[in-house]
Amino acid sequence: MSFNIGLSGLRAASKDLNVTGNNIANAGTAGFKQSRAEFADVYAASMLGTGKNQQGSGVLLSNVSQQFNQGNINYTQNALDLAINGNGFFQVSNNGALSYTRAGYFGTDNQGFIVDNFGNNLQGYTLDNNGELAGGKINNLQIKTTSQEPKPTSSVQQSFNLNSTNDVPLNPTFDATDPKSYNSSTSTNIYDTQGNAHVLTQYFVKTGANNWDMNVLIDGVNPDTMAVNVPKVSQLVFDSAGKLQTGNTVDLDNWQPIALTGSNPPVPAANGAVVNPGGLKLDMSNATQFANSFAVNAVSQDGYTTGELAGIEIDDSGKIFARYTNGQSKVQGQVVLADFANVQGLIPVGKTQWVQSLASGEPVRNPGGTGTLGAIQAGALEDSNVELSDQLVNLIVAQRNYQANAKTIETESAITQTIINLR
Length: 423
Known about the structure:
The chain is built from 2 helices and 30 strands. It is mainly beta and 423 residues long. The chain folds into 3 domains: 2-61 and 390-420, no CATH class; 73-147 and 313-382, no CATH class; 155-301, Flagellar hook protein FlgE (Tick-borne Encephalitis virus Glycoprotein, domain 1), CATH 2.60.98.20. The strands form 8 sheets. Strands 5, 6, 9, 10, 23, 24, 25, 26, 27 and 28 form a 10-stranded antiparallel beta sheet that branches. Strands 11, 17, 20, 21 and 22 form a 5-stranded mixed beta sheet that branches. Strands 12-13-14-15-16 form a 5-stranded antiparallel beta sheet, with no helix packed on it. Helix 1 runs antiparallel to helix 2. The longest helix is centred in the C-terminal third of the chain and has 33 residues, at 388-420. The two termini are 24 Å apart.
């Protein structure tokens, strides 16, 4: 019996060395989770069970459990490197076969799909036909590298102050080239349906107490008639408290986008584009007339020209934003994380991946930062959670155990030989 006991001890110590050696070998593997060999004692049993004075029959490997504690976050220069700070796994697909990983080595293939370094597709929420995130619909994430289509301006919103202490201009006839014919001016870029930029210029002329004329030119012409240097005029009327009462919205729906020809002087001609199909409004509801210098406090317009893909950003919840050269950004999808009721029940399949099992339960999928799931950190990788100093000590302990069990077999052999030598 002592031979079998010693042999079981040798096997256990050898398996302990294997587990420790595997941990050490993967100390530099991103997303790796160290394992622990767990042993149990063995007692012989009969039909009536075991007795209270049983001596034991050795040891067996009861389980190799993985320790899913957090590894250090190491920041990289790759925007598509992802790390999970907290619970959860990335879900990847190999032609429909799902597996789960903490290793966030991701990039794109030749079709723009986000894949890991083994070619598996990263999973997440994709976009519907309206370009919105389709929550609950999980598919292969893809970054579209096509140019972003232009959007024509539909609304221009301004907040400005006109100086109530200004006098009526010296020259009573407005002329955009004569600064003495107006009090102040400001310009804003707007866009037509082809993404061409046009300059909307407003000239403010005080006509009396609390009364102003606003002369509007787009590219130097009247937006309604295309007449050169003949502005579209709107009246602005303020109350005694300096708040705008009338003229707070100007309709520019009749604007015809133009391009100036190369003749001298240049002649405006239609450029083939049109105004936003829903119209174009200039909103100045927040304009004021106080005893302070003219200033534009805020201006915004919702149009933009075409844009080329300039970069990718991923936020803590896993939303993937494409940045374009026109200053715009657009959601391309959202990474989802999976978690399990019993992560110890996951089956390791190599390549720093696991698959679900009956023991692990079904995956619960949500965006990062939801519930108990961790935050997603872009441009970073999670280091292996192996602590080398602990593993080196484990090597020494396993080696001692192996030597001690070998000594048990050696001693039993000596005793057996003594009995054989009896005469």
